[in-house]
Amino acid sequence: MAETTFNDRDRLWELIKDMRFGMFTLRQADGQLRASPMTTQNRKVDEDDTLWFFMSRSGDTVAALQREAAVNVAYADPHDDRYVSVSGLASLREDPQRKQQLWSSAAQAWFPGGVDDPDLALVQVRITQADYWDVRESKFTQLMKMARAAVTGKPPTDLGEHGQVRMR
């Protein structure tokens, strides 16, 4: 895969905007990494390179991020062969206006008390960097290149684009 490194949040958002769910990974009190599926609430990367999530204050995820701010959110779209790994620093935010701005009917299912539900925690992830893999070749072409690699013993090349986006 071709590899690039650049600072382009628009490219990052183009890759993840249709992947509503990410696996939110952080370190637990016992040192183990644990991932939970979370819904990205914002419709674009904010001007301060932020992703927003709603979480349960009483859940393990909120407790863990209060101990350790470094998190990873992994997005995958196997159908289009797009994969994104976002690294950042998470924090709880008390921002009623932002909660209202991000609120949706889908959030209502998880927080029946609405935007003022006392269990509703607003989590900000300030992106530090992201890696992505965007395979643009057709499935048939990918299979042909992998078969050729198996025969020749040389790894397949030019299956798509791998890049890094640095925010900070």
What features would you describe in this structure?
It is a single chain. This protein is an alpha+beta fold. It has a single domain (2-166), classed as Pnp Oxidase, Chain A, CATH 2.30.110.10. Helix content is 26%, strand content 41%. The protein has helices at residues 9-16, 60-67, 96-102, 105-110, 139-152; strands spanning 2-6, 21-27, 33-39, 50-56, 70-77, 82-93, 120-135, 160-166. Strands 1, 2, 3, 4, 5, 6, 7 and 8 form an eight-stranded mixed sheet that branches. The longest helix has 14 residues, at 139-152. 21% of the residues are buried.
Give a short summary of the structure.
This protein is 26% helix and 41% strand.
Distinctive features:
single chain; Pnp Oxidase, Chain A; 26% helix; 168 residues; 5 helices; alpha+beta
Tell me the layout of helices and strands.
Elements: E1 2-6, H1 9-16, E2 21-27, E3 33-39, E4 50-56, H2 60-67, E5 70-77, E6 82-93, H3 96-102, H4 105-110, E7 120-135, H5 139-152, E8 160-166
Parallel strand pairs: 1-8
Antiparallel strand pairs: 2-3, 2-5, 4-7, 5-6, 6-7, 7-8
